[in-house]
Design a protein that fits this description.
globular; four-stranded antiparallel beta sheet; alpha/beta; TIM Barrel; twelve-stranded mixed beta sheet
């Protein structure tokens, strides 16, 4: 479009020109939230925030907030560690990212964490559930052979896998869940984590004891302390359930991470309360805050006003100014650095000491601008700590902390690092609005399917892999899930499991090659 000069300007006189209201950062690829077609996208900074914008020829333009603090976004890019190759990939490069997952040979990082969903059924029907789980008439429950095939694929890709998460649905209701945990241990997985809502843990003391005998780490859904929060996110008041689960975890020495789904206007004001609760409970060694991923079921939202990692960090600092500063949080270098941020604390009663106040983290984890070679032993220890595979409360993490702080005269009260160290994680998983293949190609959390694929978690939830695998496992056609965004309201209909689908879905314009389905052996 040609911009006409001001009519009052004399011939030959300077013409006022207009600058764009945003700074262009990058050109990338994403997907249409409605039809999942791969489309061009761009990332821009506007009003101090980072947005991803894209256009589908059929469904129009879309824009989503991807980072609420542009300065933090730009600063994080220095913490981008070179990726490590897996020992084996599972698919070929046919159609390009994100249609050849995985992992394909072009993926930039190995799997720090593998995740197997052992079932799709659940003893809750949460209003917010990226897995679209619940009391389903057409759900699936994996067999021991299917779980073993997935674990074997993980072992072939990693050699000695660090972390396997068993999830669902609700994995604790699977009748063979303890067998699956034992199987993973026998096959050399270092840490097995159970992702759970805690209902069985609270009711079944013997189950908690059995988990402890397998040295299972617990990833406990814990969204807040208010009844209203539980009802909005989980559909019922689960506060007593959480307390009961934690009592059994404490009794049997199970290490717990509290995992909070954080949704704007619901519970972002409870971050400090969750942290203080975690500090005070002897079974809890970590809190993970996850801005809600708008995949599967979720509350209606505005993609330009969603919560991001930086918003959560700012909220933590604002709610606990005597404890935290923005500079206490650092990006995790093994994945793309804008995906996850972490800090570690030494906690003893009212004493809370952020480890970045004691040790120059930036000196060791800045891989771009730091020209001084840091101490390799300390860098190695910090890489293990600032990693998706770090397990709070484990001996491995305690050893890394001891190495990283070996030259520091720690106060006597916090020298027992196994008991006193506390981890805080902020993790923003991508959805079909925010998907950026630049970040996706370095994803280190992989969904393991029964056919032996390791699919990046954000692709699994956004691109259509979840629906594809669910259809394969159940024999029931599964419609593509569409985000429940305000701007898409006119084209949405409620799907069979409570998530949204397009009111009139058409045939997909692109599909993965039928050969590209992994090779479980």
């Amino acid at each position: 479009m040609r911009v006409e000069p001001n009519a009052r300007t004399e011939p030959g006189a300077p013409v006022d020109r207009l600058d764009r209201d945003e700074v262009f950062l990058e050109f990338t690829k994403s997907i249409c939230p409605v039809c999942k077609r791969v489309i061009d996208a761009e990332v821009n900074i506007r009003e101090g925030k980072v947005f991803l914008r894209k256009r589908c020829s059929d469904h129009g333009g879309f824009e989503a907030l991807v980072y609420g603090d542009a300065q933090m976004y730009m600063d994080s890019l220095r913490f981008n560690k070179p990726g490590t190759l897996p020992l084996e990939t599972q698919t070929e490069v046919v159609d390009g990212c994100p249609l050849d997952c995985g992992l394909c040979p072009e993926h930039k990082q190995h799997a720090c964490v593998g995740l197997i969903e052992v079932n799709s059924n659940c003893n809750l029907d949460c209003p917010i559930c990226f897995a679209d789980s619940g009391h389903l008439p057409d759900g699936f429950s994996l067999t021991a052979e299917q779980v073993e095939a997935g674990i074997d694929a993980f072992v072939r890709a990693e050699g000695e896998p660090e972390v396997l998460m068993l999830s669902g649905g609700e994995p604790s209701i699977h009748p063979q869940i303890l067998d699956f945990i034992a199987m993973a241990r026998e096959k050399g997985v270092r840490h097995v984590v159970l992702n759970t809502n805690g209902i069985r843990l609270a009711k079944d003391r013997a189950f908690a004891s059995a988990l402890a005998s397998h040295r299972t780490a617990i990833y406990l859904q814990f969204d807040g302390l208010r009844e209203e929060t539980h009802r909005l996110i989980r559909g019922r008041d689960l506060r007593d359930v959480k307390i009961g689960a934690l009592e059994h975890c404490e009794e049997f020495g199970l290490s717990v991470t509290l995992v909070a789904a954080v949704e704007k206007g619901v519970n972002e004001d409870e971050l400090a309360d969750i942290l203080r609760f975690g500090f005070a409970h002897p079974a809890v060694h970590s809190v993970v805050f996850q801005p809600v991923t708008h995949a599967g079921r979720h509350l209606e939202f505005d993609p330009r006003e969603r919560l991001t990692n930086s918003d959560v960090i700012h909220s933590i600092v604002d709610q606990m100014p005597a404890t935290f500063e923005l500079a206490d949080f650092f990006p995790v270098p093994c994945c793309f650095p804008t995906c996850r941020s972490v800090t570690y604390l030494l906690v003893d009663g009212e004493t809370v000491i952020p480890i970045p106040r004691l040790l120059d983290i930036e000196e060791h984890l800045d891989y771009v601008t730091n020209r001084v070679l840091p101490d390799p032993s300390i860098r190695g220890a910090l890489e293990k700590l600032w990693s998706a595979s770090a397990i709070p409360g484990s001996a491995t993490t305690a050893e890394s902390l001891a190495c990283a702080t070996c030259a520091i005269d720690l106060p006597a009260a916090v020298r027992d690092l196994t008991k006193k160290a506390f981890m805080v994680v902020i993790q923003d998983f991508q959805d079909s609005y925010t998907l950026n293949v630049r970040q996706l190609m370095k994803c280190c959390v992989e969904q393991i399917t029964p056919d032996g694929r390791l699919i990046p978690f954000c692709a699994y939830n956004s691109v259509g892999y979840r629906e594809e695998v669910r259809a394969q496992l159940t024999g029931v056609d599964v419609q593509a899930v569409v985000p429940n965004s305000i701007e898409l309201r006119p084209v949405l209909a409620i799907g069979p499991n409570g998530s949204m689908v397009a009111a009139a879905q058409s045939e997909p314009t692109a599909s993965r090659d039928a050969r590209n389905v992994g090779h479980a052996r």
